[in-house]
Amino acid sequence: MPRRPHTGDVLRLTRAASVQFMRPIVVRVIRVLDWPTYDGWLWLDGYELSAKGAAVARRTLFVMSAGLIWLDTPAPAARPSTTRTPARRGPVSVR
Q1: To the nearest whole number, what is the mean pLDDT of the chain?
Q2: Residue 64 to residue 16: CA distance in whole angstroms
Q3: What is the pLDDT of residue 91?
Q4: How much is the pTM?
Q5: pLDDT above 60: residue 77
């Protein structure tokens, strides 16, 4: 039995998943829908991702589970340090 996608999975969809994918796309799964389908097929809700990993469109897709390609989820980008320099303390002049 083919692996079933879960929320958060990142999938590459090609013609192996459905003939609608003449140009492969990458999708982050929102959920697998419980709609009736043919054996081996399923409905997915997901976000189509750009080459940089940003969501560009929400899609509902009908795909063959045997044709799904799982991609490793990219690690979140390192954030710059948020260490702050303490404020100088000293006498305050009042005018």
Answers
A1: 88
A2: 8
A3: 80
A4: 0.72
A5: no
Contact 44, 29 (CB under 8 A): yes
Measured between alpha carbons, how far is 17 from 40 in angstroms, rounded to an integer?
Answer: 10
E-strand stretches of the chain? 10-13, 25-33, 41-49, 55-64, 69-71
Q: How many Å apart are CA 66 and CA 17, to the nearest integer?
A: 7
- Beta-bridged to residue 2, according to DSSP, are none
Residue 76 tokens, joined? 């979140």
Buried b (16+ CB within 10 A) or exposed e, 9-39: bbbbbeeebeeebeeebbbbbbebeeeeeee
Task: Please name which of 16, 23, 8 lies closest in space to residue 68, comparing C-alpha atoms.
Answer: 16
Which band of pLDDT confidence, cut at 50, 70 and 90, is reported for residue 78?
low
CB 68, CB 2: distance < 8 Å = yes
Q: Which residue has tokens 């991609």?
A: 71
Structure tokens at 88: 């100088």
Alpha-carbon distance of 64 to 19, in angstroms, equals 10
